[in-house]
Write a structure and sequence with these properties.
Elements lengths: L1 E8 L6 H16 L4 E8 L1 H9 L5 E2 L6 H9 L3 E5 L5 H8 L6 E5 L11 E5 L16 E5 L23 E5 L6 H11 L5 E5 L8 H10 L2 E4 L4 H8 L3 E5 L2 H13 L2 E6 L5 H12 L2 H14 L4 H14 L3 E3 L6 H8 L2 H6 L8 H13 L3 E8 L2 E10 L4 E7 L8 H16 L7 E6 L3 H9 L2 E9 L2 E8 L1
Parallel strand pairs: 1-2, 1-4, 2-3, 4-5, 5-6, 6-7, 8-9, 8-10, 10-11, 11-12, 16-17
Antiparallel strand pairs: 13-14, 14-15, 15-16, 17-19, 18-19
Helix pairs in contact: 1-11, 7-10, 15-16
């Protein structure tokens, strides 16, 4: 299985996307060790340094601009994971229009777009509804604290020991360029009797293990509202939160409501340091810090990346792949066509001889006006779909493998096959219809679910049929 991860990071974007994509890549490799995983990053030199520091195997490319090159990578993948604040909606629509397109999973923090994707992941402490998500049909949503993605160094922890007094304060505002504000904070806190440790862009990026040690040593942390808050919660470090960007605000407010973070406002607020002083005074209380530490560690269990990896791999293995049938498929298709239930639903109910079937298969395979695809799910053959082009319209026929009756795969096959056929017509959108026997309620329902609309009646070989037209 080929997996492609597309993300971004750097001095002006932070390292949050990189951290969680690294963690997800690790989880995917653990679940599917023989998979081929490609990590493509829109990265500056700071992001490259961060990735090298964390021993990541990656390709640096402005994949948003180099659209054509990345599309070739996408076409050859089984799963594509996108974690980006830069990609426009048109990029996702382009992937969605591909025939045999991969499973598309989007990591989204604040409902940035109406994504044409298969899976939307919001790894967040916020409630299950997410930030105003409109649940679209056909999209699966993984939202909540159980899907929070952490680097492998933050997966297992014992209960954090909380000291009676605050001695060590950790100051970290993610990977973005915030040295000026760090100087303001350290200047303000120098009036207190604390040992201060700062994580700054000016120094070499820290390895995850080093960051973990700093968190475990800290009695209190002053942090921005990004990915780091989840690592702090997992380690149980009582935290004061400061907001630097719109996408952090919802997260910080949810953490405040949850009871782990004491949120003091935006970095630019005039009264920020007054609020910060009050927060420190409140958290000098041992019981306050102990309660918040317990809340953080109970909220984030560290298993989010594994849950996501297992879900995506299962979804990808259940997807239908459409190919041109070969001689190896002739006997299988013949058996499907002659199944008693299939013959009962057909207009011509006579059993088909093997010789006639082989002649039919050869004619269909060689005809420039007929397209036939066989659908496979993993190693299983699910069924065939055929499009016969006439002068003014195209007639579609479907034959499902009887072993897969009753699983809802008919609609999936019709939808996938129709999409592939239209894609191959290169925007010459034909009128596509299906003639369905009036008592064949199963096929009528499958075509309706696949986007076909019931229209006029028709007469086929003396049988009344309903005409379903692709909308």
């Amino acid at each position: 299985m080929k997996i492609l991860i597309l993300t971004e990071g750097g001095r002006n974007r932070g390292f949050g996307h990189l951290s969680r994509c690294l963690a997800l890549a690790y989880a995917l490799r653990r679940e599917e060790p023989h998979s081929e995983l490609k990590f493509v990053i829109n990265a500056d030199r700071h992001a490259k340094s961060f990735l090298k520091c964390n021993n990541a195997d990656f390709t640096a490319m402005d994949w948003v601009k180099k659209n054509g090159k990345v599309m070739e990578l996408i076409k050859g993948s089984s799963i594509v994971i996108v974690d980006s604040y830069l990609v426009p909606e048109s990029f996702y629509k382009k992937i969605a229009s591909l025939a045999n397109r991969p499973l598309v999973a989007v990591i989204d923090d604040y409902n940035r777009l109406d994504y044409p994707a298969d899976v939307i992941i919001n790894p967040s402490v916020c409630d299950k509804t997410g930030p105003g998500y409109k649940k679209n049909k056909g999209i699966k949503y993984l939202i909540g604290a159980e899907y929070v993605i952490l680097r492998k160094e933050f997966l297992r922890f014992r209960r954090k020991r909380i000291n009676k007094k605050i001695s060590n304060i950790l100051i970290t505002f993610g990977g973005m360029n915030r040295e000026k504000f760090i100087r303001k904070i350290t200047g303000f806190l120098s009036d207190y009797d604390f040992n201060l440790t700062t994580v700054s862009q000016k120094v070499k990026p820290l390895k995850a293990e080093k960051m973990r040690r700093l968190m475990l040593q800290a009695d209190l942390c002053v942090s921005s509202g990004g990915q780091t808050t989840y690592e702090l919660a997992r380690t149980g470090v009582p935290t004061i939160g400061i907001c630097f960007a719109d996408n952090q605000l919802y997260n910080l407010k949810c953490w405040q409501k949850n009871g782990f973070i004491e949120y003091v406002g935006w970095f630019s607020q005039k009264d920020l340091f007054v609020r910060l002083s009050r927060a420190i005074a409140s958290l000098c209380d041992y019981r306050q810090r102990n309660r918040r530490s317990i809340v953080g560690q109970r909220t984030i269990d560290g298993k989010g990346a594994a849950r996501i990896a297992m879900f995506l791999l299962k979804e990808a293995k259940n997807r239908l792949i459409l190919e041109k049938p070969t001689g190896k498929d002739v006997l299988d298709i013949w058996k499907w066509r002659n199944h008693p239930e299939v013959r009962r639903r057909c207009f011509n109910k006579t059993k088909i001889g093997l010789k006639a079937h082989k002649e039919w298969f050869a004619r269909v395979s060689n005809s420039p006006r007929i397209k036939m695809y066989i659908a496979k799910q993993g190693k299983n053959k699910v069924g065939v779909i055929r499009f016969d082009e006439g002068k003014s319209r195209v007639i579609v026929n479907v034959n499902l493998n009887p072993d897969f009756f009753g699983r809802g795969l008919g609609a999936k096959l019709i939808r996938s096959g129709t999409t592939k056929f239209i894609e191959e017509k290169k925007n010459k959108f034909p009128e596509i219809i299906a003639n369905i026997e009036r008592d064949n309620f199963v096929s009528q329902e499958a075509f309706a679910k696949a986007g076909y609309v019931a229209g006029t009646n028709n007469n086929v070989d003396g049988y009344l049929s309903y005409v379903y037209k692709f909308s």
